[in-house]
């Protein structure tokens, strides 16, 4: 499979395999990657990965592992053994957890990208306070991104509102995978820290995760094309 230069990752957030594959069949694997998350994977297991790989898609397996180091290392290894392009953990699981996961991939020479979630894009200051973090999202994202980089992660998941700051802190090649993308015509749904595709790219997001604005559109590829236009205008 040739390396894709598209930054777009479409989130296949569905409860059933047939729904996810019906959407995948409306997308072009040369113009986007796809993301499989907790609901779909818990329902279908690895068969969804096989079906998407057979259709030519590179897959981000978004299970956001967060557990003791040995458990997470094993889970990340299992994900990589399925041949996924990218897998993620929660940076708040700590340095030893992230290092254990990275070392396990290195030991097996598995090339799956390993990234860490900083602060979920659904969270604002008041949500952080409720879980005992008395900080604005940005400094907490910066703290966790710096820790993720020191722990050998290839990049982080953050809001595109924080991308520019992380570019200064962690450099250009450190991946900045940004969900919460909302084209200028969409609503925010349950997201709190959103950004438009154009501003995310300008700020230096390396990858844009987009779910509902594409998957709930009557013509998903037209919605994707509009996002491409918005990004490159
Ligand atoms: O890791 C993720 O992908 C993720 C992290 C985050 O902080 N926020 C976030 O929305 N996501 C995922 O990105 C997707 C966003 O979907 P939409 O809000 O429909 O565009 C969902 O599949 C979320 O699970």
UniProtKB/TrEMBL annotation:
One of its GO terms (cellular component) is cytosol. It holds the Pfam family OMPdecase. SUPFAM superfamilies: Ribulose-phoshate binding barrel. Coiled coil: none annotated. Residues 7-227 form the Orotidine 5'-phosphate decarboxylase domain. SMART domains: OMPdecase. Gene3D superfamilies: Aldolase class I (3.20.20.70). Transmembrane segments: none annotated. Signal peptide: none annotated. The keyword Ribosomal protein does not apply. One of its GO terms (biological process) is 'de novo' UMP biosynthetic process. Homodimer. This is Orotidine 5'-phosphate decarboxylase. It comes from Chromohalobacter marismortui.
């Amino acid at each position: 499979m040739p390396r894709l230069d598209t930054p777009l990752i479409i989130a296949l957030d569905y409860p059933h395999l047939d729904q996810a594959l019906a959407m995948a069949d409306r997308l072009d694997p040369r113009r986007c990657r796809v993301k499989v998350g907790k609901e779909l994977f818990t329902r279908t297991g690895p068969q969804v990965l096989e079906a998407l790989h057979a259709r030519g898609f590179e897959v981000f397996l978004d299970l956001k592992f967060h557990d003791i180091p040995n458990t997470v290392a094993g889970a990340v290894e299992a994900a990589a053994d399925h041949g996924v392009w990218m897998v993620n953990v929660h940076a708040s699981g700590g340095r030893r957890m992230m290092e254990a996961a990275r070392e396990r991939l290195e030991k097996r020479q598995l090339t799956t990208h390993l990234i860490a979630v900083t602060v979920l894009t659904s969270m604002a200051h008041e949500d952080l306070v409720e879980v005992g973090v008395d900080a604005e999202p940005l400094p907490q994202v910066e703290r966790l991104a710096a820790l993720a980089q020191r722990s050998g992660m290839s990049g982080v998941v953050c809001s595109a509102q924080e991308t520019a700051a992380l570019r200064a802190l962690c450099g250009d090649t450190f991946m900045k995978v940004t969900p919460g993308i909302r084209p200028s015509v969409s609503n925010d749904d349950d997201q709190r820290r959103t950004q438009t595709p154009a501003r995310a790219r300008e700020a230096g997001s390396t990858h844009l995760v987009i779910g509902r604005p594409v998957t709930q559109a009557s013509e998903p590829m037209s919605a994707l094309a509009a996002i491409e236009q918005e990004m490159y205008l």
